[in-house]
Amino acid sequence: MTDVMQERAGVQVLVCDPAGPRVTTTQDALDLIGAAFLGAEVVALPASRLDEDFFSLGTGIAGEVMQKFVNYRLRLAVIGDISGHLAASTALQALVRESNSAGHVWFLPDLEALDERLRAVA
């Protein structure tokens, strides 16, 4: 599968291929944003495509990547199990909790949870 545009809960979503390139830099995030500009409102990015540094908040990568999406007014949904990362970092737990309560960046277990979230904010 390649990254594909899908309508999910009435919203155009760029659903990224789990086997696609890893997001390790802000330039990688900008490449996804560029692809999403073909009509997506949300980018659904598998957590497995995020570099380990993303989950280590001291690196600043998570903040930089998330801020790029906010700046370009695109929502980012990190899809998948990040429980191992959460168990290792109370700071990450706080970031995820805060992000999930807002509207720009969400951490969700699967695409069905994304569908539910999109319906809830419609």
Structure, described:
By secondary structure, this protein is α/β, with parallel strands linked by helices. The chain has five helices and five strands; from the N terminus they run E-E-H-E-H-E-H-H-E-H. It has helices spanning 26-36, 61-71, 83-88, 90-101, 111-121; strands spanning 4-8, 11-15, 42-46, 75-79, 105-108. Strands 1-2-3-4-5 form a five-stranded mixed beta sheet, sandwiched between helices. Helix 1 packs parallel to helix 2 (61-71). The termini are far apart. The mean pLDDT is 96.
How much β-strand is present in the residues?
A: 15-25%
Helix content, binned percent? 40-55%
Low-confidence segments: none
Question: What is the alpha-carbon Rg in Å?
Answer: 13 Å
Strand order of the largest sheet: 1-2-3-4-5
Class by helix and strand content?
A: alpha/beta
| Total number of helices | 5
Between the first and last Cα atoms, what is the distance in angstroms?
28 Å
Series of secondary-structure elements, N-terminal to C-terminal: EEHEHEHHEH
Main sheet attributes: strand count, strand direction, barrel closure: 5 strands, mixed
Mean pLDDT, all residues: 96
How many strands appear in the DSSP assignment? 5
